[in-house]
Amino acid sequence: MDFKKLPKIELHCHLDGSVRPSTIIDLANKKNIEIPSKNIEEIKDMMVAPKDCKSLDEYLKRFELPGLIMQDKESLERIAFELMEDASKENIVYIEIRFAPLLHTNKGLTTKEVIESVIRGIKNAESIYDIKGNLILSCMRTMDVETSYEVIECGREFLNNGVVAVDLCSSENEKFSEKFEAPISLARSYGYRVTIHAGETGIGENVYEAIKVLKAERIGHGVFIKDCKKAYDLVREKNITLEMCPTSNLQTKAIKLIEDYPLKSFHKDGIKVSVNTDNRTVSNIDLTNEYDIIFNNFEMSENDYKQIYINSIEASFADEETKDKLRNYIK
After folding, report:
1. Where is this site: Important for catalytic activity (predicted)?
2. Residue 200 a catalytic site member
3. What is the dihedral of CA 251, 252, 253, 258, to 10 degrees?
4. 2 labelled binding-site residue
């Protein structure tokens, strides 16, 4: 199968992990921002995680350089536009982009201005390319729980007009769900959909709690339900879709070898999976590449591809009109 030509859907892609290295240099020059180098190869080295990355925390260090640049309206709008453009060029027809707005307020932007700027970039790209995008607002588990309320309140006015869901991300510790139960419950009451990073770093129990306590509709990664039967059974019972990211999971040591990746076994056992990049730049991949990796290593078929595509439509937080359009791409 020529995955580049096939229509694709991406449900788990981080904005700040998908910035073009050339854009970092260009914006640093235009905005007079000091960065460690202006050499494109050196910048790539700082932004791309090594294949022998030791842990999730080491992987997350690759977000520091984009964080220096993504602090003004123009830069945020441009970076969102370029991510949509890059996705469109490999025939991604729908994408949900996630980012943590509070990481982009260091130079005076309000949380609302940050969100508005990214939405503007997405909508600009939609007017040019055959792609639809929506935003997922990530709250940081490494920040005080109270900061989640600011993100949720500021994003509320953009619900169903660019913003569709809330997320919890960053380093994963045990039993984080109880701590964030109140803000996520509030978000749900406003109409936010809920997806949660869980089960990425060896704690399958976190997936169980994210579904039970936070009412997660999707799980980011979820690899370690393979070692937690009650989480595995709950995911299958509730039809929770896993947003799986093969290359990223290999880099962060969720798995040691790609041959160990449980996506096919989950899929064959009736668990709904989607295939995603996580971070296009940090993992140095695109979605076409991710599908090639999975289908070449696990001998999956065209029917498997169609089923994953349909799963991704149904699990998306898109409106019904968009979902109908996405279904038509493979009829």
Report:
1. 221
2. yes
3. -40
4. no
Two tokens at 229? 């039967």
The set of residues, in sequence order, having a beta carbon less than 8 Å from that of 286 and lying 6+ positions away, is 86, 90, 277, 280
Residue 286 scores a pLDDT above 90: yes
278 is in an annotated binding site: yes
Mean pLDDT of 87-95: 98
**Active-site pick, 96, 116, 172, 200:** 200
Check residue 52 and give its pLDDT: 80
Under a CB-based contact definition with an 8 Å cutoff, are residues 283 and 251 in contact? yes
AA letter at 316: S
Element (H, E) at 193: strand 193-198
At 153, is the pLDDT very low, low, confident or very high (cuts 50, 70, 90)?
very high
pLDDT(60) > 90? no
Task: Dig out the tokens for 77 from the structure.
Answer: 């709008």
Residue 47, SS3 per DSSP: helix
Q: Could you give the C-alpha distances from 57 to 60, 274, 330, in angstroms and in order?
A: 5, 24, 39
Taking the C-alpha atoms of residue 63 and residue 129, their distance in angstroms, rounded to an integer, is 27
Is residue 106 pLDDT above 90, yes or no? yes
Would you state the pLDDT for residue 301? 94
The answer to whether the annotation marks 104 as part of a ligand binding site is: no
Tokens coding 289: 């590449």
Please give the structure tokens belonging to residue 299: 């001998």
Q: How far, in Å, CA of 7 to CA of 314, rounded?
A: 15
Residue 238, classified by CB atoms within 10 Å of its CB into exposed (0-12), middle (13-18) or buried (19+), is middle
Dihedrals phi, psi of 169, to nearest 5 degrees: -140, -175
Residue 302 in 3-state DSSP? helix
- 123 is written with which tokens? 């909508």
Contact at 8 Å (CB) between 101 and 114? yes
